[in-house]
User: Fold this.
Amino acid sequence: MSLRADLPVVLGIETSCDETGIGIVRGRELLANEIASSVEEHARFGGVVPEVASRAHLEAIEPAITRACVAAGMTLRDIDAVAVTAGPGLVGALLVGVATAKALGVALGVPVYGVNHLASHVVVDELQHGPLPDPTIGLLVSGGHSSLLLVADDASTITPLGQTLDDAAGEAFDKVARLLGLPFPGGPWIDRVALDGDPAAIAFPRGLNNPGDRERYPYDFSFSGLKTAVARWVRAREATGEAVPVADVAASVQEAIVDVLTSRLVSACRDTGVSHAVIGGGVAANSRLRAMAQARCDAAGVELRIPSTALCTDNGAMVAALGSRLARSGVAGSPLDFATTSNLPVTRSVW
Ligand code: KG4
Ligand code: ZN
Assistant:
């Protein structure tokens, strides 16, 4: 890859959950981002069924690769490296992407990077807004993770500052949506329904807000109490025979989640003296989170970056973005016996 080391063409493969994502980037330029989702196959179960997801990846992956090549105006022979999510995620689902990546790497004679899904959610912003300032505070909010991160040197070094002690932010959105009878996945539905609701209608609890919590858990989150409070509130309302005001509940819950996420983000920036922040992960698609984070960061003098919503939810471009970053930094490809790791820690960007 020596001739094109500054602008490698990287194919990214994402199969950690229910989205089969194939992205192609050249350097930091996005050339293709194809997605096939099996979300509708899971909806009637109210959550992602791993076996169903794995089979769907197997059917979708080759056509998605072909579509991505067509969109980028390339053939596989133009690819300089392959990057694939090695974890965290559902092991059976990850295996489909990893096996495909290894086969492509061997067939094309190019390096394969087994990369971290969480780090990819942060690095993807580079495709839109250029190199991440060093250092940057990252707020990572997805269906399985919620963390505050200190990101140095474009994500090759990620130091966790705090994380959720129980449910992830996306999980909280999805569980509350279920309580309200909204379809799966609930996050986007809460976002939509909340537009017609009053965010101040119900004062739902902000987790870890008791005396002493700020000192003990300055950058952590807790959302399980919120879910319980909403369940109690809905049950009490149903017991009166009155209709549950779904829009008001959705708006109030969303406000509680977003308030906690954004206040912790700004505290982390202030305490560490870091004036750049980035938000990544599926929940970063939330319109209220985007607006409140922007307002609070502006007030605190923090320069905030959030990728477009299509780059926030799971996709292949984010994996390609991290692979490209690694290739341009001269990092060697992963040994071809690298494994899928359901709980790969965020500190480990690559195998
Ligand atoms: O990052 P992601 O696509 O997959 C994981 O890596 O988990 O995140 C999925 C999560 C789900 O919980 C989904 O409900 C949530 O992101 N989500 C949203 C929105 N769009 C997706 N949550 C709130 N508002 C949204 N607009
Ligand atoms: Zn994700």
About this structure: The radius of gyration is 20 Å. The pocket of zinc ion (ligand 2) is lined by residues 117, 121, 142, 281-282, 314 (CB under 6 Å).
